[in-house]
Amino acid sequence: MFGYTFKYMQLWQIFNSESALTYEALLKRFHLQLDIYYQPSFLAADAFMHGGTYEIFVCYDQSSIFIYPYIKKEFENNYYDITSPYGYCGPYSNNAAFFDIGEKAFLDYVVTQGKMVSEFIRYHPIYNVGNGMKFKQNISNIKNRTVVMLNTSCEWQEIWDHSFSNTNRNLVRKMKKEGLFCEIVDYNSYIHQFIEMYYQTMRNANAKEYYYFKDDYLNKLKHQLGDNLLLAVVRDAQHLYAAGLFFLSGNILTYFLSARNLLFTKVPATNLLLTSMSEWANMRGVSYINFGGGLTDSENDSLFQFKSNFSKVRYPFYIGKRIHKPDIYEMLKEKWISENGSVKYEELKNTLQFYHK
């Protein structure tokens, strides 16, 4: 689907799985290498996980472009909601002034279609930094938490001396002295061990069911992403201590999932994992590592404090909520409450699209 915004002479198009190659050609035309969340391969896997389909709204002229990927979930009477894929995938533009034009074109498209009920956005901490690069029309943008980023484009010794905490440096030295090392391994050879350790790690942390990623989804990710999904492990000659999955795209390495061997809880193997992957990224010219944030926005969040051992650089992570059809949204809310009760609604009401739970 495509059209023109005649007032400004921009072309807009909707890309999906059937037009992924055309979208990728457009990225090349604009010399764009974007984060993994903007790639059709990742979007296809995420849509599979969420039981939806992906679309990418693109508005562009000769020199400027606006890109907005999302997952589309349809329900009764052809109505649908959209949400950013899991991770960080807000609208992208190579031109701050063009960003607003792109938003207007998208909203015009929404009105023309007339079937979108609500929209949930997970903004990108780099691409959407600053208010000028976030949606502005009829939307609530909320700071959700703080993410830790590491600039890996400088010299490794500078990173080692000034980005890592003293605690982390000492732990890494000790583990290396004891014979532990980190390496990127063949996915198929280690993924079953990773999944087993990951589920144990999640159970130990009393994690919500949402974080129990199924092995069919992880295998779909690998099939779609290929070499852009990396599996790294920490081990010695006898044991496997920790493992992690990382995305690589657009000069950004993203820390996705990790797991520990609970038989060795006193071995701080994840410190060696993240330090070694930081060095790997630095050696290959990667610009940033996105370690993500904590489970909350608190400075005292234990996961956030752990990730802070690897960088002093912080970026705010925002989410956005927008309702396009308040009457339909209210109807969906009341129907859900009648079926599930007001107590359950009170638990979920801050989740925009709670009725999909």
From TrEMBL:
It comes from the Bacteria. Gene3D superfamilies: 3.40.630.30. Residues 168-295 form the BioF2-like acetyltransferase domain. SUPFAM superfamilies: Acyl-CoA N-acyltransferases (Nat). Keywords: Transferase. The keyword Transferase applies. This is Acetyltransferase (GNAT) domain-containing protein.
